[in-house]
Design goal:
single chain; about 375 residues; alpha/beta; 8-stranded parallel β-barrel; two-stranded antiparallel ribbon; 16 strands; globular
Length: about 375
């Protein structure tokens, strides 16, 4: 039976849904289960900002030119993000029919031949077929037109200001700035029930590239696929594994995906290191943050709200340990200002700290913070 997503708007009442590195997440608990014969260099606990698909995902219909400045999930996007004070980039990995891990988000690739638009499942392509779409590395070669299907079903030209050829996981290890850690999302189709044999083949193909090329680069695995999360943890003990969840914003046939509580249960049963939740799932259910902390799990978030500096800082106050963002430049700059301790001169200029200058850190009392945490779930209802 295929998994089917049901949007929150289709649920009668949200209350009926089950309750659910200049910023570096590495903490001592991440070293849990690391092979004795091999260590990964972990850093001191800090708040982590991760570049989504590199320097941000492409939203081709957006009027915000920043969302289509650089082709997502490319070496160019990764290294562009690396110009800013982040320590990790996030990207999606799938495996071709001939066993090569490639970096691409969508389940299907769209193109046009003699005026006819066609689609092919990415995992049904060979490596050479996959690389034949979009810009080509050889100047004399012309790639197949690359189109993209939007959420509203339109198929449009994948046009960005700075384009680049698609890449493999191996290329990323070889060509991306060495200091950047990799948050590798193990990408699977929500609407397919996978057999363990297939999952094992895919994960071992990816792990082989990581083992051969990661060297000292920090690596985190994450996935929405519960069985893949459990299996990649069993297949290796070197790198942290995080379970991705919508946090109750969508409902799936697989109940393990439907709430933060289910995510906690999966992590504890499988020995995973943490959870990456859609940020609205956390804001709607802020009490889950303490449950996650009490379970000695780490918590990060993703989602459009993470492009709002105030929402990011609120998460820092809540104890969330990292955020995946599209606006890498803007969010790293904003959070850097927020996290910087004011100098004595700044305090004096602000009248002894009674007033806040532009770009300074928001200040909340415990009472005010408690009120905001109660208010946020009401504000973000959609």
């Amino acid at each position: 039976m295929a998994l089917k997503a049901v949007h929150v708007s289709d649920v009668p009442n949200l209350d009926h849904v089950p309750e659910n590195a200049s910023f570096s997440l590495y903490s001592s608990r991440f070293s849990k289960g690391v092979d004795i014969g091999r260590t990964t260099s972990f850093k001191e606990p800090k708040f982590l900002v991760i570049g989504h698909r590199g320097n941000g995902m492409n939203m081709l219909q957006s009027t915000d030119l920043r969302m289509k400045a650089v082709k997502e999930n490319t070496i160019l996007s990764f290294n562009t993000a690396g110009k800013y004070p982040i320590d990790f980039i996030e990207f999606d990995v799938q495996v071709t029919t001939d066993g090569c891990p490639i970096i691409f988000h969508d389940n299907f690739i769209y193109s046009q031949d003699n005026g006819t638009i066609y689609e092919k499942r990415v995992t049904d392509l060979s490596l050479s077929e996959f690389l034949s779409y979009g810009p080509q590395r050889e100047a004399a070669s012309e790639g197949k037109t690359l189109l993209r299907k939007t959420k509203d079903g339109k198929i449009i030209n994948w046009a960005v200001e700075s384009d680049e050829p698609p890449c493999t996981l191996k290329e990323a290890f070889e060509k991306v700035i060495p200091r950047l850690g990799f948050n590798i999302e193990l990408k699977f189709d929500d609407h397919i029930v996978y057999q363990q044999e297939y999952l094992s083949h895919v994960l071992q193909s990816i792990l082989q590239v990581v083992v051969d090329h990661a060297k000292e680069r920090p690596v985190i695995f994450s996935t929405f696929q519960p069985d893949a999360a459990l299996l990649v943890k069993k297949l290796q003990a070197t790198y942290p594994v995080f379970f991705l969840t919508n946090g109750g914003n969508e409902i799936f046939y697989d109940v393990r995906r439907n709430s933060l509580e289910e995510a906690i249960k999966l992590c504890l049963e499988g020995g995973l290191q943490g959870i990456v939740s859609e940020v609205r799932g956390v804001f709607r259910n802020p009490g889950a943050v303490n449950k996650i902390k009490e379970s000695k799990l780490s918590l990060m978030t993703y989602g459009k709200l993470n492009n709002v500096a105030e929402a990011v800082y609120m998460q820092h106050l809540m104890g969330i340990e990292g955020v995946i963002v599209d606006l890498v430049k803007e969010i790293t700059e904003a959070v850097s200002k927020m996290m910087t301790k004011p100098s004595e001169e700044d305090i004096l200029m602000q009248g002894g700290g009674e007033e806040q200058g532009e770009g300074s850190r928001p200040k909340f009392s415990q009472k005010e913070l408690a009120f905001l945490l109660k208010l946020i779930p009401e504000l973000i209802q959609q």
